[in-house]
Write a structure and sequence with these properties.
This protein is about 30% helix and about 25% strand. By secondary structure, it is of the alpha+beta class. Strand 34 (about 595-600) and strand 35 form a beta hairpin. The model is unreliable at about 1-5 (pLDDT under 50).
């Protein structure tokens, strides 16, 4: 009877939340007691709320200044715990009244043993494999004793059943006397324990998935924030470079510009920080409540512990109902920061550095996805997009599609002569000339076939010379608009080209990550390479060179203005986010009216 009473006392010294002996016990206004650390965790789950809900009875207690330490301490319980810890445990195997002190506890026998009984127990063949714990380790808290559930009303009986309706363990006699009628659902305790463990594991799995989901969201926000920070850094660097080339009197203007960049980007960073903070708070909430529910080695036995566990499980279920992250919010916030760029102003009488502008693009979906082959400005100031088997679609500077021509031709390249005649290059590397009225002219050009030359590119220079580049043959043929044989061949040894553009007395050759300016005898005059992105070139309306750097995997495009020696003049667009297509194929051009057109296989972006 004394052992049964002691078991009841020991069980009453356990916190209903962590199921361990109370440490620094604090009492709520409803008189229920918990470990201070458990209450700290519960309060953290409720964010900035100063009201703490009791896991057992669900009554609310106000926590002064959100500091659990200010709650009253259960001194009587704390004293009882110390008394129990300091009590000597006597051997439960010896039959004499004067029982010696125990030194070990056998988990399998459920008995405390003195040194004599322990030595005898160790010699018994059937008990050699039993788990024996030193009493000193039990008292220090290094190991936990596995208790056997005994009925309080029938101390000799084990609680081998569990009533689902009453939420309590019972022995056989209690089931017969108290839980037989009124439709009580009674199952074996082992079945309940198995179901409880499975339910706990399921909750842990769901919490891990939800936590992983929000962690990816936080990582995404960090990436967006880093891109915004890179824009700020790039803009600041450009401003400083321009400032160093100017006179000291521009200091005040420089500080204003940098402040403007910071003003436009730091606000975005603060927005992203707030979104990130909210997501991290949800991760903390999930982690804390999930750990309280799942990181435990014992099954809750009494009604308080079960009630506490039910409440914690309900809190976790409510937390799991939180909607998954909405990526649109950080994307919309970061757009404002990523669109900031610095534009240098030169050639004015008044000394100035430049201005901060937002890159805004008109985003137009091409009629057929993954179908764009080339793009070129038309003589009347519009933009012609070559869409392979769908012919040529012509767009105005405001993004309106105004005309579709050559609908039934498979086209790989288009050029224009000074008299506005069309120069068409088809998939077999055949060149055909058409009038403005789309009448085919009876002219023949002796180009290399696709088998001989491979993929071909086309450009028309200022002298109406038609240049055709061959990737496989690694050379360029130059034709007169009168047709016939090529009157010049330009060798391109040591590199393969993807696109060709005419520029003054040069040809601009694009090959993967390198842009080359070659003279018309084939000698490379200038070269620009960038790791980590593909380069695309076009001639600007100011007769400078525009170069787009495209990070295909990330879907980011930057556009800069360069001299004829391929030296950077200014960054126009930095890390503009585009919709990444399947095919890594792009074109860059500028409208006569100044808008920059960047075309992907799927979409046309017009930067104003």
């Amino acid at each position: 009877m004394a052992d049964a009473l002691k078991n009841v006392i020991v069980q009453s010294l356990e916190c209903p939340v962590c199921l361990n002996t109370f440490t620094n016990p604090k009492t709520l206004s409803c008189s229920h007691t918990y470990c201070k650390a458990c209450l700290d965790n519960l309060l953290e789950c409720h964010g900035n709320d100063q009201m703490l809900r009791c896991p057992v009875c669900r009554a609310e207690t106000q926590v002064p200044s959100q500091n659990v330490s200010k709650l009253p301490e259960n001194l009587a319980l704390k004293s009882l715990i110390e008394d129990v810890k300091n009590q000597h445990q006597f051997c439960t195997n010896c039959k004499s009244e004067d029982k010696p002190q125990a030194v070990v506890y056998c988990q399998d026998c459920g008995m405390y043993l003195c040194i004599t009984c322990h030595n005898t127990h160790s010699l018994w063949q059937n008990f050699i494999s039993h788990e024996v714990l030193a009493l000193s380790e039990i008292k220090s808290g290094k190991v936990s004793v596995r208790r056997y559930r005994k009925c309080r009303k029938h101390p000799k009986e084990d609680e081998e059943y569990f009533c689902i309706d009453c939420r309590r363990f019972s022995c056989f006699w209690c089931v017969v006397m108290e839980h037989k009628d009124d439709g009580h659902r009674v199952i074996e305790a082992a079945v309940y324990e198995s179901s409880h463990l499975k339910s706990t594991e399921d909750l842990k799995s769901k919490a891990d998935k939800k936590r992983s989901c929000f962690q990816k969201y936080v990582d995404f926000i960090d990436e967006e924030k880093e891109r915004v920070s890179n824009v700020q850094k790039q803009c600041t660097d450009d401003i400083n470079e321009a400032f160093e080339k100017s006179v000291q009197q521009l200091t005040e203007n420089k500080d204003i510009l940098i402040g403007e960049v910071k003003g436009r980007t730091e606000g975005v960073e603060k927005e992203l920080d707030e979104i990130k903070k909210s997501a991290q708070e949800h991760i903390t909430h999930l982690t804390t409540i999930a750990d309280m529910v799942t990181k435990r080695t014992k099954i809750p036995l009494n009604m308080d512990a079960l009630a506490a566990h039910d409440t914690l499980c309900q809190d976790l279920q409510e937390a799991l109902k939180h909607e998954d992250p909405d990526y649109k919010q950080p994307i919309q916030s970061s757009k404002k920061g990523k669109s900031v760029t610095f534009t240098r102003i030169v050639g004015m009488d008044e000394l100035t550095l430049g201005k901060i502008v937002n890159a805004v693009a008109k985003n137009i979906a091409l009629p057929t996805k993954n179908n764009m082959n080339a793009m070129i400005g038309t003589p009347d100031g519009r933009m012609a997009v070559v869409c392979c088997k769908r012919g040529v679609e012509i767009f105005s500077a405001d993004g309106q599609i105004q005309q579709k021509v050559f609908k039934h031709l498979e086209i790989h390249g288009v050029g224009f002569l000074s008299d506005y005649r069309y120069v068409i290059l088809d998939g077999s590397n055949i060149i055909t000339l058409y009038t403005l009225e789309y009448t085919k002219l009876n002219l023949m050009f002796e180009t290399l076939s696709y088998d001989e030359g491979g993929w071909a590119g086309l450009t028309v220079d200022g002298d109406d010379q038609i240049c055709v580049s061959y990737r496989k043959a690694q050379k360029i043929q130059v034709f007169s608009p009168a047709g016939g044989k090529a009157f010049r061949e330009i060798p391109c040894d040591g590199y393969k080209f993807v696109q060709i553009t005419s520029y003054n007395d040069y040809l601009i050759i694009k090959s993967s990550i390198t842009i080359r300016l070659i003279v018309k005898q084939g000698v490379v005059k200038y070269k620009l390479s960038k790791l980590g992105g593909s380069l695309y070139a076009a001639v600007s309306q100011g007769n400078t060179i525009l170069i787009a750097t495209l990070k295909h995997d990330e879907g980011l495009v930057s556009i800069g203005e360069y001299t004829n020696e391929l030296k950077l003049v200014q960054n126009i667009i930095i890390d503009y986010k585009i919709e990444k297509p399947k095919r890594n194929w792009y074109y860059l051009q500028q409208y006569r009216s100044g808008e920059i057109a960047f075309c992907t296989p799927d979409r046309l972006y017009i930067f104003h």
